[in-house]
Sequence to fold (492 residues):
Amino acid sequence: MDPPILKPNLLRNILVRILSFGVLILAVRLAYFVTVKGGSCDSGDFCFFPEPLRLTGRVRPSAAVSSVPVSDLWTSKNWRKSVDYYSSVFQDLIAEGFLSRDSKALCVETQAGEEVLALKEIGVIDSVGISKRKSPPLIVSGEALRQPFHGNTFDFEFSGGLDRSNRPVGFASEITRTLRPGGFLVVHTVTKDSYSLNSFIDLFNSSFRLIRSREIDGLDSPTIREVVMKKELEILSPGGNSGNKCSVPGLKREIIRNAEPLIQEEPLKPWLTLKRNINNIKYLTSMVDISFKNRYVYVDVGARTYGSSIGSWFKKKYPKQNKTFEVYAIEADKAFHQEYRSKKGVNLLPYAAWVRNETLFFEITRDPSKKIVVKGRGMGRIQPVQTLTSFMDDVDRIQGFDFAKWLKRTVRERDFVVMKMDVEGTEFHLIPRLIETGAICLIDEIFLECHYNRWQRCCPGERSAKYQKTYDQCLDLFTSLRESGVLVHQWF
Fold:
């Protein structure tokens, strides 16, 4: 008997089914390697990418790995946790209209690309991250301060790394350049006080409008602040200061309310009371975060020796939040100038802080017998200004400069400025001038020694004839500064 002959149609159907099943197997295998294995070629099997993708450097503390294959990282629980977290965050932003699946999105300073993958998984396909080390296909090589993109490229930008930037103004400038008008910026930050939020908003000039700021659950911390801002089509008119008058927002008033109270009653033993008061001082940097400031500046007016306050107090005791401060020492007494030549990082201004540029005559405390400047405590300090008509025998000719004008040329509102002033009574000229010109608005914190006819330590019941002002006048000076929105402390 002849063997049965298969009909052509039946044979064709069998072959089609076999081929279809083979294609399905290949498709499943391809999907597995692309989405789960990440295209890794280290298995010796089929690979989607020609070379292994590796993340080098640091990733999140919860998954800190160095030189880890992407396949291992992408399948780890910590990685999946991060992706799921950002997926939830971005889905909320989509629901609120700040992000859409058609958006062109950028994640700035992403550490491992979890944010980018989260965007892609929820349908924002046109997403990319930048970091110093590229990790294809999620991250391209680039820096936050020099993004490798044209201007007005993105509809949405996200950053969780602005806290870590040493140059927040440059960071903000690049975001302003690459985000399209009408686009949204979302930033996650660990800073939560109003002062830091205000500093953050100031980074973006008048190009952005704050949409909202709220606390949300964090990935590696209980809560974080989420800030949403929109880039405007037109530059907004700046709020800022009106003329030379400082604006005093509620946040400054709140800070001053939380500061140590001023000593209302005149101390009977000021040499003890005012010195002890330093232990009660609530430093501004102990109450707020200063990470979003452009520069950090310390100005010592009446610096005397380096060890008088710069070396002994500011360098050692002032809480700087690990920031590097530019230091300016203003000291007119020539006896102290030589020491500063060997002090690196200190800019000496060998003049007298005054209300205008002019030559002045200052009385110097000297040893009457030797006619030389004595460097001991309480000696060698500049006394109040002497006019030509009241010229005294023991004076030095000193060059004075307009301190308020210099300050306005040297620092900006984005800078964090701390000032100590000990000018032997000249504060009653300098402080009103700073307020009048608006230069006082540039100072965040002042440590002021106010000189008045205090009770003498040597002679009970007798006041010093050295100064004519009273303690009440000093108190008025401190009060006027706090009302101007300046955190001032009583110094000794």
User: Anything to note?
Assistant: The CA atoms of residues 191 and 289 lie 6 Å apart. The longest strand covers residues 179-189.
